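Exercise: predict the structure of this protein bound to zinc ion.
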Amino acid sequence: MRTALAGFSHETNTFSSVPATYERFQVLRGDEIPRRHENAHSSLTGLIEVGRERAMGLVPLLYASTGPIGMISKDAFDRIVGEMLAMIRDQGPWDAVLLANHGAAVSEEYSDVDGEIAARVRAIVGPRVPIGMAMDLHGNITQRMIEQATVVTFYRENPHVDARERARECAEIVHRTVVGEVRPAMALETPPLVINIVKQHTGSEPLKSLMAECEAVIRRPGMLSASVIQGYPYADVPEMGMGFLAVADGDPALAREMARHLARRAWEMREQFVGHTPSPREALARAAQAERGPVVLMDVGDNIGGGSTADSTFLLAEAQRMGVRSYLQTLYDPEAVQACARAGVGAELTLKVGGKTDDRHGEPVEVTGHVRVLGDGKFEELKPIHGGGRYSDQGLTAVLDTTDGHTLVLTSRRAGNTSIQQMYSVGVQPERYKVVVAKGVQSPRPAYEPIAAEIVLVNTPGVTSSDLSSFEYKRRRRPLFPFEREATYP
Ligand SMILES: [Zn+2]
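Solution:
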């Protein structure tokens, strides 16, 4: 057996001002792929594990990814996908293809990059070779993707601590297909429904019971897999919204019935998917009055994992105005890091931090403080965190203790707050603070839930704001709930 392993993974925030150019992608080739993903918890980890266990003759070809920034340039798409497809074409024939994609990739040319890739791979390998895709639940999934692939699996947990497990499920089904044990039949339902980002935690209601229903569907006789796809509202594409996928064994009617069943359940719950969150001022007041800390404030509008700038200052500026002390946060600000590095450890300086990428994430804030630590910004996480990565590098990092009683961890590269090691690696103990800001919605939970007295989602402005009325959509379908409350689903 010979199986091609590849992937092109991007969550495209079409409202972001930072384009996903070729240079911004990390491209792994050949054995670099297992070297980076072995003993981790990512989708690739799961695909590689099953590929080996089942002797699928895995040939790692190419895997390209970058942070969830803006539109993929035509040049980046052509070069990366071109190279990936040439490898699949030139190194075949294959018994199977495994792809680790995201599901919300948009390029200048294609609103459905993942469907386009699936179609091109299908054209190369022909109709009989199984293609498995292991994807993120934040995809905007299209019928085209489902028609071109043989089986598609999605994370079922948000935060995404099950990336490896779900990819294992995908590879197992592909293997069973190759050996003739099963014949996957997929069906996708896409009711006109958007779930607010602040309602996406799969461990809480309303999703908790919907996910339990999904698990019940999977356990039914004749079923191979099922997914509740949450969609990605920051990609302005026709397919934006939730999706419900069922994979049955050789029974398209059962798959249709089950996809429809899950979609109907979600549609009945739609009012519960609308988000309501406190303002920065309300959230900070609540945190300041809390009996014990740390109160972790999720900076929803600056969700780095959702394509934001990582340098939003709305919470910091408000905390300064309100005199909230014992406050910790990260800020992407390479210029400020350089200023701290020039001043040196122990030096005191006054500088402006954050709010420098664009005009949607607050003004730079003037602070005075002393440099506590300078670090190389590299850290390693062995626990299964959101997305399952192991190695992180946020570039030269400065820890600044300000006269306002704030600690700012200033980074040279955009890095999400998904690992507590980000703090420990520069000697910062978040447990000791009253207020800790985490830039994200669900992704920081595995890192901060174990130490948080309370987690509060905050309605901060920005390109990932939970206030979806702040975005100007041009391409999304209409009507779509909750934008158009009259939307119906028969
Ligand atoms: Zn995701």
